[in-house]
Automatic annotation (TrEMBL):
Swiss-Prot/TrEMBL keywords: Carbohydrate metabolism, Cellulose degradation, Glycosidase, Hydrolase, Polysaccharide degradation
PROSITE patterns recorded: PROKAR_LIPOPROTEIN
Name of the protein in question: cellulase
GO function term, MF aspect, one: cellulase activity
Catalytic reaction list: Endohydrolysis of (1->4)-beta-D-glucosidic linkages in cellulose, lichenin and cereal beta-D-glucans
Naturally occurring in which organism (per UniProt): Novosphingobium sediminicola
Gene3D superfamilies: 1.50.10.10
EC number: 3.2.1.4
Length: 363
């Protein structure tokens, strides 16, 4: 049984960032059965039956993910977080749909995202949609990784299916990210997690798992190295320095002060956990394995010793989660260590499923 108090969900941090600065909470969906009713206290959160047309010969794991999590309206439903939707899920879904050639799903997800989460004041997206609320989009703050995923998916979809309007929208999002979400400080160009709540004055709050190098490299190819090169270099620099404890692992959240040295976020448990597992995937997928060599070494040593890889580890005390890494997380390990990808049933939670798909398809 998981101790939810020991887990952290960055989505809740974004929700609080506009009013407070930091909130710790749990990633609720790990290891639970997937049913709409279970995720919303008996109330279905889906907008309608899953009747969307599907192309033939799609990837089987994607087809299963789509059947469980994609509503007919185009909304990816996070069943482990009360049936909400967020730009992370929409972006992941759009990116995977392009990868497997599922244009109907891509269009449905993009159209829903544009209709419900697009901000009127800039080409970014409010991060969260809660169907249980009278105001489903109460927090206008964005989540930078969601915006990056959407921009990348649109650019790839435009190239695959020849729709110029999608590239134009991708370009608008890329420009807005560069303008509003990069802070220049001490000769570095920090990619911020969101517009509001992460510039703490003397420190910046950073989430290394937002460093989606596949997207950043694509942006540089589209917009020029002069635009994105400094951002990429800073992301790489942060990862080289954000190595803590005996295993030199990054934590889910870090703060960077005037000296440019990342430190574990002081108001959060110093864990290499549910967010940081993606740091390895994003680096390896973009041919930057050296940046995450300590993570690979930690996982490799666990396997060599016949030990279970835990869902999280405290980088200082060495305390480990009393439950293992999810099937999706294990697929990330396999991708990172260049091991054969095991064919497994779809994980029983939204985030685990996403990791399974990303480990197979992210390039």
């Amino acid at each position: 049984m998981q101790d939810k108090n020991m887990l952290f969900d960055r989505r809740h941090m974004l929700m609080a960032a506009s009013a407070a600065l930091m909130v710790g909470c749990s990633r609720k969906g790990e290891g639970k059965s997937v049913t709409p009713e279970a995720s919303t206290g008996g109330q279905k959160s889906f907008d309608g039956p899953k009747t969307m047309d599907s192309p033939k010969n799609l990837d089987g794991m994607w087809t299963s993910f789509r059947q469980i999590y994609l509503d007919a309206s185009g909304r990816i439903v996070d069943t482990g977080n009360g049936g909400i939707s967020h730009t992370e899920g929409q972006g992941y879904g759009m990116l995977m749909a392009v990868a497997v050639g599922d244009r109907p799903a891509f269009e449905a997800m993009y159209n829903w995202t544009q209709a419900h989460l697009a901000r009127a004041d800039m080409a970014l997206y409010s991060w969260r949609f809660d169907p249980r609320s009278n105001n489903p989009v109460a927090d206008p703050n964005n989540a930078t990784d969601g915006d990056m995923l959407i921009a990348l998916a649109l650019a790839r979809a435009a190239r695959r299916w020849g729709v110029a309007a999608w590239e134009a929208r991708s370009r608008q999002i890329r420009q807005a990210i560069r303008e509003h979400l990069v802070i220049a400080r001490g000769g570095q160009h920090y990619l911020m997690p969101g517009i509001a709540g992460f510039d703490l004055g003397d420190r910046l709050m950073i989430n290394p798992s937002y460093y989606i190098f596949t997207a950043l490299d694509a942006f540089a190819a589209l917009d020029g190295a002069a635009t994105w090169g400094p951002v990429i270099a800073t992301c790489e620099n942060v990862l080289r320095k954000a190595r803590f404890g005996v295993h030199n692992l990054p934590t889910d959240w870090v703060v960077v002060g005037a000296d440019g040295m990342p430190q574990p976020a002081p108001d959060k448990a110093p864990q290499f956990g549910f967010d940081a597992v993606r740091v390895a995937l994003y680096a390896v997928a973009a041919r930057r394995g050296a940046l995450v060599a300590p993570i690979a070494d930690y996982w490799r040593a666990k396997q060599a010793g016949g030990q279970t890889i835990p869902a999280w580890v405290d980088v200082y005390s060495g305390a480990e989660a009393p439950f293992p890494l999810s099937p999706g997380g294990l697929n990330v390990v396999q991708r990172t260590l260049n091991l054969p990808m095991k064919t497994e049933a779809l994980a029983q939670d939204y985030y685990g499923c996403v990791l399974q798909l990303l480990a197979r398809h992210l390039r």
